[in-house]
Amino acid sequence: MISDIKRVGIVGTGVMGAGIAQIVAQAGLEVALFDKGGGAARAARDDLKATFDKLMGKGKISRESADAALSHLCIAESMTTLADCDVVVEAIVEDLGAKQALFTELEAIVGTDCILATNTSSLSVTAIASGLRYPGRVAGCHFFNPVPLMKVVEVIGGIDTEDAVVESLLGLVSRLGHTGVRAQDTPGFIVNHAGRAYSTEGLMILEERVAEPEEIDWILREESGFRMGPLELFDLTGLDVSHPAMESIFEQFYQDPRYRPSCISRQMLRGNRLGRKTGLGFYRYENGRKVDTLAIAPVPEVSDAPPVWVGGDDDAVRGEVMSLLESLGGRVESANSPSTSALCLLLPLGDDAVSASAYFDVAPERTLCLDVLQGLDRHRTLMTTPVTRQDMQDAAHALLASDGVGVSVIRDSVGFISQRVLASVVNLACDIAQRGIATPADIDNAVRLGLNYPRGPLAWGDALGPKRLLTILERINALTGDPRYRPSPWLRRRATLGVSLLREETGIRRYREVGHVG
Fold first, then answer.
1. Which of 30, 90, 154, 214 is catalytic?
2. Whole-angstrom Cα distance, residue 139 to residue 346?
3. Full-model pTM
């Protein structure tokens, strides 16, 4: 394979193809644009000229850089013009037959050392390359939209892809100023695979009526630090895109419950409630702006607050909560069991409020639970039992909101909201590592850059504590009997050993080195 890539052909000049062309031209490489749609390639070049002018006007690039980038873009009037390209990237419709036909046609045109790269986001690279004379030259090179801003690219080797092809593409991606991550040819690769936990768990929480969409999204933004909640993210992407993707991953993994979609999103898709593009999804929109959202419950006024007894297995965390309550003016009981008038505030990991009240042997009518997994500085989530008295709920809410920190009150749920979502996100990343789909470092880089998570999921798991996450998953799994919450061996083993989730296996040769496909 050519190691010094100088000329890149791009087939398909829609949004993705034009975005790829932009960063390749700005990196100083020659770009040949081809599209079977009449005039589409020329229109893409004209649009890119306008983009370069706009960047220059904002002071992002110089006049010389804009002119140079434009000069690197040429129109391929026919596919034969791509014959001297070192790499050809296809960015056509996401259809297996169309991509196979294109690569068959290209193989008869380009040199034997030309790399054929597919920008597929969901199709098998192995399947795309099947039937070619030289399938070893084909690899996935999955850019994300918008290409100039999304700084990660998944480079995927199929079952026959030569290592030199993957290395050449990783080198090209680096020259473009992006971060390349190597992935095995499995459903969803890294990013679309890892993202299943956040989206499907958000829907599961909504199905169980734990909270309204606004509350779910608020908690995950403010408490966990996600840029968008899962339900508002569905509205942005559109359920016509998101739900089929969930179903596809679920079927490709032979209906593993880990990836189970939701009947809610299927019903909304059938009712054309797609999100922003139709004006109605989990929220209502007018001119692209959210309207008619439910107000978050106001802080209640409490005149005669009861004393508070705190129950938790971790003495240090329990002490921190007691100190916080005292600093907020609460009357905190220090006895081993609560008085008959006390509000019982419990600190479970993974349990629901009913199970926690039974474990601590306290009255469920006077019980609320507080999520302490991520600390209590940014946001605080309270959880009731089905029989919690309103006066106890109001007292807990008013006390914990008295310093201005936001407070959510949710219905009973295994693992609150943040606990179960974060445990699921980290657990799925551990599964990806265990399957050898990517290295731990590449998993974290791909998810952080491709999904805009606050941290890579494995580093995030280390910060939260692998043992605590394992406890959360084990308890949720035991209470629900749902195998979607089964702990990954990667998580369980590293939590038991007390080592980082980023720690790779040692002392074992790769399968490929002993003659197996891996």
1. 154
2. 52
3. 0.94
